[in-house]
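Handout, section B. The chain below has 138 residues.
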Amino acid sequence: MGQNKEIDELIEDFSFFESWEDKYQYLIDMGRNVPQMADHLKIDENKLRGCQSIVYFSNSYNDDGTITFMANSDAAIVQGLIALMLKVFSEKKPQEILDTDISFLKQIGLDEHLSPTRKNGLSSLVSSIKNAAKIKVV
């Protein structure tokens, strides 16, 4: 399982911050840069289950074989987690997505600093991303 350059960048970015307060602030700032989903995508069937906050998730398959993921949340930290996952997984080919290991979350320390409900939500998001990729693996 190879790591992608986005994961390497995230590990480097997070290692720059000393305190968890700063890391959370960075996460929140990342979340602010996530594009807003179109209102017609914010429907019940696009809501992620297992999230404490509201999270809408959608994807589209591109002509070049990659998948674009879109997601939005009403919670700042969750929106930051979405930003992380979109950076790692969006615009990748399905097999790349399936081969991507998310153990980098441990490396940047997020694993131990998320509440159980946020971990569940993150797990739900990653599952949805991997499932979208599984559909398209040839």
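Note. The mean pLDDT is 92. Compare this with the example in section A.
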